[in-house]
């Protein structure tokens, strides 16, 4: 069947698989090996696919890895908020006009978020402008 993997359901984009695995790793108590990730995914992916995804995520500096037996154990390099901040920074760095991007971003913030950002940039600033 087109778009299907052998007895594994519909094919999903790699980004969705990475997000699924990253969420799983965030919820884990410790770093996980590919076998442990495969098991916790409930058999939705082949072991070799999990190894490939983890290796690519490590190459993207999303995960750390440490040897454990004959495999590596993988863990996220930061928490969910840290990943969101990295994505925001990457988008900002990819644009030639940083000022325009930041201005547009600031224009879309709610009053509450704008106050929070002001406070984070200047802790002496009192909330509520």
UniProtKB/TrEMBL annotation:
InterPro entries: BlaI_family, WH-like_DNA-bd_sf, WH_DNA-bd_sf
Keyword Iron: no
A Pfam family it matches: Penicillinase_R
Keywords noted in UniProt: DNA-binding, Transcription, Transcription regulation
Stated family: Belongs to the BlaI transcriptional regulatory family.
Name the UniProt record assigns to this protein: BlaI/MecI/CopY family transcriptional regulator
Native organism: Streptomyces actuosus
């Amino acid at each position: 069947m087109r778009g299907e993997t052998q007895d594994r359901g519909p094919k999903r984009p790699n980004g969705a698989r990475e997000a699924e695995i990253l969420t799983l790793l965030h919820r884990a108590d410790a770093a996980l090996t590919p076998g442990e990730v495969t098991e916790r995914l409930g058999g939705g992916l082949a072991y070799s696919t999990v190894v490939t995804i983890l290796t690519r995520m490590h190459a993207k500096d999303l995960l750390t890895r440490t040897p454990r037996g004959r495999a590596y154990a993988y863990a996220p390099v930061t928490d969910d908020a840290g990943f969101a901040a990295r994505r925001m920074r990457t988008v900002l760095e990819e644009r030639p006009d940083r000022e325009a991007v930041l201005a547009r971003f600031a224009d879309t913030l709610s009053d509450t978020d704008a106050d929070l950002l002001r406070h984070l940039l200047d802790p002496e600033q009192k909330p509520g402008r």
